[in-house]
């Protein structure tokens, strides 16, 4: 009897662990990953505009109303910065946003996050890193990666490969392209950034591109973008939206 009891317990243990793991995933309307470019083309002022834009978005009553209007009334959000193929840094771990207090906690965490600048621009590295972040305590009806940046991929593996793998996992890739009109020597001969993001970066059901015409337009662009992303039933909208300062 004792041997059968031990054997039965051993066989049941994996089932208990799997059941416990499944129960640990809290349902949310959307799991949203914010991936923020901090390569060398983003100077200190521009980086601050990005961070301030994300913080302001989660203090915005319209965004919080949008979250409350979802079937579950809550989303999960995390934010990291990216640059070279091997450089991704977590800024804000997964947080549940279900009202103004939670929105303020997320915004405060963004305010307090370190500001660091690196060298290259690896959108593929950002996609690969983001794809591994889902399912960590939350289970969303949709999985969305929001990639913001001001340059094309110049580090790491081809974007097409990383994009294809993300789409196979059911992840929606949205883009926020920042058009910096300041002339830079390394931009010569490169395709227009908005065209590049539209054809090479975004993908998945309902994917879209928000274009900020300069970093001064970033805050407005990111608010509009996240409000559209968290909609429980995303309304048909333009593939590309533009925001001016």
TrEMBL record:
Pfam family, one: DUF1194
Signal peptide, first to last residue: 1-24
UniProtKB keywords: Signal
Top-level taxon: Bacteria
Source taxonomy: Bacteria, Pseudomonadati, Pseudomonadota, Alphaproteobacteria, Acetobacterales
Organism the protein comes from: Falsiroseomonas algicola
Designated name of the protein: DUF1194 domain-containing protein
tRNA processing listed as a keyword: no
């Amino acid at each position: 009897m004792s041997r059968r009891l031990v054997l039965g317990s051993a066989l049941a243990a994996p089932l208990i662990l799997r059941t416990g793991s499944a129960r640990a995933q809290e349902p949310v309307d959307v799991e949203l990953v914010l991936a923020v470019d901090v390569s060398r083309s983003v100077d200190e002022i521009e980086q601050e505009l990005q961070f301030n834009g994300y913080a302001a978005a989660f203090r915005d009553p319209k965004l919080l109303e949008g979250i409350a209007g979802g079937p579950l009334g809550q989303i999960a959000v995390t934010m990291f910065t990216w640059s070279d193929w091997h450089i991704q840094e977590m800024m804000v771990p997964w947080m549940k946003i279900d009202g103004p207090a939670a929105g303020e906690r997320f915004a405060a965490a963004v305010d307090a996050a370190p500001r660091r600048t690196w060298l290259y621009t690896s959108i593929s590295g950002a996609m690969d890193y983001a794809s591994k972040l889902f399912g960590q305590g939350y289970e969303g009806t949709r999985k969305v990666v929001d990639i913001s940046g001001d340059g094309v991929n110049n580090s790491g593996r081809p974007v097409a490969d990383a994009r294809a793998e993300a789409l196979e996992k059911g992840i929606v890739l949205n883009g926020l392209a920042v058009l910096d009109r300041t002339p830079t020597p390394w931009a010569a001969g490169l395709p227009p950034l908005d065209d590049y993001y539209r054809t090479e970066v975004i993908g998945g059901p309902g994917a879209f591109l928000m274009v900020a015409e300069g970093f001064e337009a970033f805050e407005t662009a990111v608010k509009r973008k996240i409000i559209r992303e968290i909609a429980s039933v995303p309304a048909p909208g333009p593939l590309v939206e533009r925001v001016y300062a």
